[in-house]
Write a structure and sequence with these properties.
The protein is mostly helical and 513 residues long. Helix content is 66%, strand content 4%. The chain has three domains: 1-44 and 134-336, MFS general substrate transporter like domains (Growth Hormone, Chain: A, Up-down Bundle), CATH 1.20.1250; 48-121, no CATH class; 339-513, Growth Hormone, Chain: A. The protein has 22 helices and six strands.
Length: 513
């Protein structure tokens, strides 16, 4: 029995649905992008150079020591800048002899070597605060370690979808949501009291494990509580609230620059969501499947009371009979077929085609979306000022324009054309940025924003399309499977981003379009 059948008696979008969706389920999306992208701000890499203790006993300034010992190189903007990982390899006696003859001017023919005494960081922006880069010296030969927390996060998200699906099947969505919310708050806050990089990465794994379910469960519940005709607007508004969480992240990270304090700031406030326990609904579909007739009856009556709708006197008896008949039919199907639900779908030609198509689209769209957003690191370093806030803000604003385009094109052009042309235009603008002459960073940023707009519209349309292609009874299982595979693919994104971040390579993710 479809829960939509009951809406004819209790109203499909009354006061109950409006209050539940706008004040409970939509705000529950805020932590998703906060945790997904916070690593960009926790791993800010300020300008740095090798520490040299040769003249420290003479109390010389850091600028003078840098001028004398650090060689210069030509950067992407064709201007000279100091090396960050190399230093002149010269002894004190040779330095004194050179200074007597020529003065305190470095000789570019001196041999160079890698930093061996640590690094000095430009703290104009961070001040006394730390990013994970400055705290654990994740630069130069150790820069690849910046990938570990991101890989740990996506690995946790991949594991979380599997673990969450098991919990949801056995205990329901409500228990799973609050269990994952507690994990998120505990480990997200505990990072602030940690001084070891390996433990930090482990805690990011636990946060990723929880956030994947914190975002998916409210989205599925909002679809179950409203009519099928409102699913498109519901999914687009879900993306709107997720991106609003990313905007909050920009503001919070700009005011709180220490990574320990930042993790607390984006974890502790969401403890308030624990108060939702007394109003958070259980999945109607799960209640029906598990023959929780009294709870279904109570939920429907709560909706009817809030929506000021009168139920028929024999409603409870009719509801009980319908659920019992439906469960008896489902029991016979389970007896005749012992395979899991997903395996049953793969045996049906039409559903098999839909599931495989959705898996491919979810993988490519997820990798493209994360690849585009994490590519703001390239603009931060190419602009030469380490400012990651402006490119990231451009990416989030582009997401909102993408939602607007999706909302318009879904009405007039349909799902297939919105996804197809969105991907084509996204790839076109991405490739255009590769052929910009003289590496005009501002022009590249314009092309990047244009590509992000169409990629976002395509991804938003995919969410709507997938819900319309699948029966409600199969939606959660199939989407969880697609999200699991896409998060498995996302583990490779940090590795690729690391190797292209210092080069003029076109964003790799656009090629997937």
């Amino acid at each position: 029995m479809n829960f939509y059948e009951l809406f004819s008696e209790v109203d499909d979008y009354g006061k109950y649905q409006k209050l539940m969706i706008w004040f409970v389920l939509f705000p529950a999306q805020l932590p998703y992008l906060c945790q997904l992208y916070c690593h960009l701000f926790m791993s800010i890499t300020p300008d740095h150079w090798c520490r040299m203790s040769l003249l420290e006993s003479f109390n010389v300034t850091e600028q003078f020591s840098r001028h004398l010992f650090v060689p210069k190189k030509d950067n992407i903007l064709h201007s000279l800048q100091y090396e960050q990982c190399f230093v002149y390899n010269i002894s004190y006696d040779a330095l004194v002899e050179h200074s007597v003859q020529i003065g305190w001017i470095p000789n570019q023919t001196w041999p160079i070597t890698r930093c061996s005494q640590g690094w000095i960081y430009n703290r104009t922006f961070l001040g006394d605060d730390h990013s994970i880069v400055t705290k654990w010296d994740l630069v130069c030969d150790r820069a690849f370690l910046q990938m570990i927390p991101i890989i740990a996060y996506f690995s946790g998200s991949f594991t979380g979808f599997i673990f969450g699906n098991i919990l949801t099947t056995k205990f329901g969505m409500k228990f799973t949501y609050f269990f994952m919310l507690c994990i998120h708050c505990i480990f997200g806050t505990s990072i602030a009291f940690n001084n070891h990089f390996d433990i930090f990465s482990l805690m990011r794994f636990c946060v990723g494990l929880s956030v994947s379910n914190i975002a998916l469960i409210p989205r599925c519940l909002s679809l179950e509580l409203t009519s099928h005709e409102r699913s498109a607007n519901t999914l687009l508004l879900t993306d709107f609230w997720r991106n609003f969480g990313a905007l909050l992240l920009v503001i919070i990270s700009y005011m709180i620059r220490d990574f320990n304090h930042l993790t607390v700031a984006i974890s502790v406030p969401f403890m308030v969501f624990i108060l939702y326990y007394w109003v958070f609904p259980e999945s109607p579909k799960w209640l029906i499947v598990n023959e929780r007739i009294e709870q279904v009856d109570r939920l429907v009556r709560d909706i009817a009371t809030t929506n000021v709708t009168l139920l028929s006197p024999d409603f409870s008896i009719t509801l009980r009979r319908r659920i019992q008949i439906e469960c008896a039919l489902q029991s016979e199907l389970k007896t005749s077929r012992s395979q899991p639900l997903l395996m049953k779908l793969l045996f049906l030609p039409n559903m098999r085609f839909k599931v495989i198509t959705l898996c491919i689209l979810y993988i490519t769209q997820s990798v493209t979306d994360i690849g585009f957003t994490y590519y703001v690191i390239e603009f931060s370093e190419s602009r030469g000022n380490g400012d990651i806030y402006f490119p990231f803000l451009v990416a989030i604003i582009a997401n909102y324009f993408g939602l607007l385009i999706a909302w318009i094109t879904l009405k007039y052009f349909g799902r297939k054309y919105t996804i197809s042309f969105g991907n084509i235009l996204s790839a076109f603008f991405s490739l255009m940025s590769a052929f910009v002459k003289n590496k005009d960073i501002n022009l590249c940023l314009i092309y990047y924003a244009s590509a992000k707009v169409f990629q976002s519209s395509s991804q938003s349309c995919l969410q709507v399309w997938s819900h319309e292609l699948l029966p409600l009874s199969h939606y959660y299982s199939v989407i969880t499977f697609c999200e699991t595979l896409s998060n498995l693919a996302l583990i490779s994104v940090p590795i690729v981003i690391f190797y292209v971040s210092f080069s003029s390579v076109t964003p790799f993710s656009s090629l997937l379009n």
